[in-house]
Design brief:
mainly alpha
């Protein structure tokens, strides 16, 4: 009971509305509807994502494609079996490309699009982390104004001072304890994912250069039809 009584002292609905409501409002204004939806959906990745396992699976998939290319042809790359949709799409593109330059253009565009989308999602949480302390400062000013305007009534000074202090606390907690770490984690996951995707595409590019760039164009569709 004593613990609960102490805990309730840190709860103030008015302060919560100022900080959390204000931060949410600022974040919504700074982001698109699509980015907001992706930002909420990305929360589950904080626990499910395993960058090391993804990178290892990508290396294994690239190895299988290399074996298929050596045994038969690079045209078999579309048969790659992987849980990662990016690798499946990359394999299909590799088998359909006429030369390495065509595959490189696809890979560059796809990865840059993915990078931009990741940055936008992390940016939503980064915007919340930046807005929260400001909302806390606004609440602090509101509380101080209420306190100074009630100096003739000691009973009203305490609640006003509590609002001033709690809004600062909520702002710091929301920024440094919630939104900031989520944004940092998403940025780290994005960097790791982009890194193994670029490495995989680099290997695919080398395979395309070794086979497609030295194969007469007129033979490529015939070979693919046979396979």
């Amino acid at each position: 009971m004593i613990f609960l009584d102490q805990l309730t002292r840190f709860f103030d609905p008015f302060a919560l509305v100022i900080v959390f409501g204000g931060t949410l409002l600022v974040t919504v204004f700074r982001s698109t509807h699509a980015d907001l939806g992706r930002a909420c959906g990305a929360i589950k990745l904080l626990w499910k994502a395993d960058p090391d396992a993804d990178a290892a699976a990508a290396r294994a998939a690239v190895g299988r494609v290399r074996e298929m290319a050596e045994a038969r042809s690079i045209m078999c790359a579309d048969r790659i079996d992987s849980a990662h949709r990016f690798l499946v799409r990359a394999g299909r593109q590799l088998s359909d490309s006429q030369n390495s330059a065509e595959f490189v253009r696809w890979a560059t565009d796809d990865i840059e699009t993915r990078r931009t989308r990741h940055e936008a999602v992390a940016g939503v949480w980064r915007a919340a982390a930046e807005a929260a302390p400001s909302m806390g400062m606004i609440g602090t000013i509101i509380g101080l104004v209420q306190m100074f305007s009630s100096m003739d009534d000691p009973a009203r000074i305490g609640p006003a001072m509590a609002v001033a202090m709690l809004t600062t606390l909520y702002g710091v907690f929301l920024s440094a304890g919630v939104a900031g770490p989520i944004a940092g984690r998403l940025e780290r996951l994005s960097e790791t994912e982009i890194a193994w995707q670029q490495a995989a595409c680099k290997q695919f590019e080398l395979l395309a250069r070794a086979e497609l760039d030295h194969m007469p164009v007129k033979l490529r569709p015939t070979l693919k039809a046979v396979l």
